[in-house]
Amino acid sequence: MSLRVTVKNAKDLPNFESIGKIDPYVVLKFRGLEKVTKTIDNDLNPEWNEQFEWTLQSPLNPSEVVQIEVFDHENVGSNRLVGNFDYAVSQLWGQKEKNESLKLNPSKKARAVKGWDKHRLNVEFVYTPLSKATPQQKAQGGNGVPTGDEEGGDESFVSDGGVDGVDGEEGYAEGVGNSAGGGKKKRVRHPKLPDKPTDFQIRIHVLEGRKLEGNNVSPVVKVSCGNEFHKTSSRKGTNNPVFDETLIFNFKERPVELFEKNLEIKVMDTEKKIRDNVIGMFNIDIGTIYYEPKHSFIHKWLLLTDADDPSVGARGFLKLSLSVLGPEDDPVPSSSDVSPDDVDIESNLLRPSGVRLQAATIIVKVYSAEDLPQMDPGYLQNFKSLLHIGSGQKELVDPYAVVSFAGHSEHTEVKWNTQTPNWNEQINIGFRFPSICERVRIQLKDKDKLNADDFIGTCFINQSEIS
Length: 467
Hints:
Strand 16 and strand 17 form a beta hairpin. The protein is mostly beta strands. The protein has six helices and 24 strands. The two termini are about 45 Å apart. The strands form six sheets. A five-stranded antiparallel β-sheet has the order 3-2-5-6-8.
């Protein structure tokens, strides 16, 4: 098995040199290995035509990406980033090779150059999966590359039981069909599909939206596939709509053709003119959904981006379930529950190729509390004394503070037997920005080794009031 990447050339790279032109080179990163092209001096249209190959010990996982970075070489000082792109290998499904003309996510310096968005980086990807001889080929003494038509199906890709989104520096893998989640990788045997028109049903359960861009928007979700589209009803005047509607497409096509099609998911504002009413969008190919466990993404959040320039960042979030059902496939249940404010979105997020979330940290300094109420009845003090919990007859409250955000929680130490605890502790909670979660939750609890800990009180702080 191998993955081969050929860096061909680039066109119209942005030039941020004050004298002359940039000296570009390309860095490729995959599975911990880094490959670098030669540097082309003083050229905005460099020709590299360099080929790099990774020998693979295991099949590709749809959540994996090839990280691509273009730099300007500097003889003095640090080399400067021109732009980057994270290419989802799930786009290689069903193809021996694929030529891509990529638009990089520009660096801040590159974005300042007039006409920066005209550039393109031309790259070829070739994936050679594990050879697997068919019975006929074995009889002839040959080997074959699995195509999905052999008995037992195609094993050219594996899945980790939920698409993983953790990458090295940023903590997330990039690309359509990627989220965070992790888990032990396991081999998924793809079902055998006929090479003839087959009945498929695509189900999209649109659940809710969060933090949609704009003021006083009235959002509606439109899903298009080929020449067909379906829409939800609109929700008036809200940036956090709840839809709970199911859209259904029925197709009768050859799998290899259907799986190449994209689902285009748009959230639009019905209060605006048609020309500029798109709040944000997300694209995913049908094949990526089908080759997930049970042919479904269930309760995933989509990061919506600008239709014309995905690199500008998040335009909101949309929660939905996606299923591609073939003959004899049973639908996967998708509940209508609305996500709580402290849900762990980061472990359940799908993002477009090349869109990165920034690492961020919420820092909460917990100093002290005063006049906390008594939480334990008096007779429990004897039991606490026997268990050596605290020292002596005190106020019968053992407080500690818990800080929670985006599904992550940290707490202070317990202060035994005091109504006026002094912690003077700093709590750090890491997350990815922008986050779908809005509120930081701070709770005071009473530690109890005999029973469940008791709640003393809870307060919330909006993230927007901090940042």
